[in-house]
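Researcher: For the annotation table, I need structure tokens for 4-hydroxybutyryl-CoA dehydratase/vinylacetyl-CoA-Delta-isomerase. Please keep the output clean. Sequence:
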Amino acid sequence: MMTRDEYIESLRKLDLKVYFMGERIKNPVDHPMIRPSLNSLAMSYKLAEMPEHKELMTAKSHLTGHTINRFCHIHQSAQDLVNKVKMQRLLGQETASCFQRCVGMDAFNAIYSTTYEMDKALGTDYFERFKKWLIMVQDKDLVVDGAMTDPKGDRSKGPSDQADPDMYLHVVEKRADGIVVCGAKAHQTGAVNSHEHLIMPTCSMREADKDYAVCFAIQGDAPGVSMIYGRQSCDTRKMEAGADIDLGNSQFGGHEALVIFDHVFVPNERVFMCQEYQFAGMLVERFAGYHRQSYGGCKVGVGDVLIGAAALAADYNGVPKASHIKDKLIEMIHLNETLYACGIACSAEGKATESGAYLIDLLLANVCKQNVTRLPYEIARLAEDIAGGLMVTMPAEQDLRHPELGPIVRKYLQGATGADTENRMRVLRLIENITLGTAAVGYRTESLHGAGSPQAQRIMISRQGNIAAKKELARKIAKIDTSKDHFEVPAKK
């Protein structure tokens, strides 16, 4: 496995094509806008080096027997699934941000079991190709950007019905030695901090969409691959000289990018699905399930930090013993642990697939993510309530440091007797960062739209909730004789 420093140096060797605010960034590793997100991802390497975190952060590869980072692991038991969620909570606690390595891990596991069943049904050899590539990823301890979401264009139309075919990534040419693809993947978390991209279809496909049913791996600096770095709330504060307090979280952050594929050639050994549209839906469903499970860990870890920050804000405001403050903190803990309980539950109920890899309970994973689309917003609201309006109206750090304005700021922004004004400002900026600033991208908005927006989970809950079986339970208890019924149940629309 790589160390934290080795990981950072490995990114310097890549010739990534990254653009931000109209200009190409020649050195993404040390760019002040990007470095906090790099630090967050690097924490997955640092913790793996620490003996006290070895059980959560590492695993034994079932393919090689080597000890590997858990982010490169194929789950071999329900305990592996549970450890994944616990690992994600730990990283959330350590960074208070998105650590960007989960999507690749979830893609590995979805593709592993799907290619196994695809080969069994169709006689293809994608499973062996994928295993060889994955062994390389495990042995080199690489970061892989799992890429599923397409721009999608007109949402009322499917992939093959779009006016511009590039609205969904697709195959434009098949060669004897590989394929050529065009299109883009949007909202790509940690793309600039990744060694490779692992591409998946974004939805179930019809035969007419077969050119869009494609799954492959490509190096981040491959010819034709480029990235446009996304903007975030308050992100330009990072560019200010000496910025610290106003950042809220000066060490860690997250990022997303639009990844462009302009006639990119992919060799056959890196292609894991090509026009097998019948299996696109299976791959999407399994990936979505794994990633919805992930939110029961990472968002909970960030929630732990936010709850702690809110409690500190109450201390600095002088109201830690107020009954309504205590009640709000209790409610925040209750909501946060509810998210965690769902993440653990869908993991503990996981079962082996035909490939031997373990899949979470899909119904409970969708319930987990449905809760994540709601509860972090209430946790954030309560944190803002406890923090008070000063969180968004207080002067800048430059005013605090100013020789004339500084004493005035310290006088009028002091809180509880004996509390340091600067420390009060720091904790308020941290709450701002998580609820409204750069970390809010991952904690709030991603909680809603990541791994599928709320309606996607409701559709899956409807499919997997087994209403028919529940009706039968009720009939049995109520002693209903269905032979006496002659009414027609309306067909589903």
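Researcher: And a one-line annotation?
Model: The CA atoms of residues 124 and 479 lie 51 Å apart.
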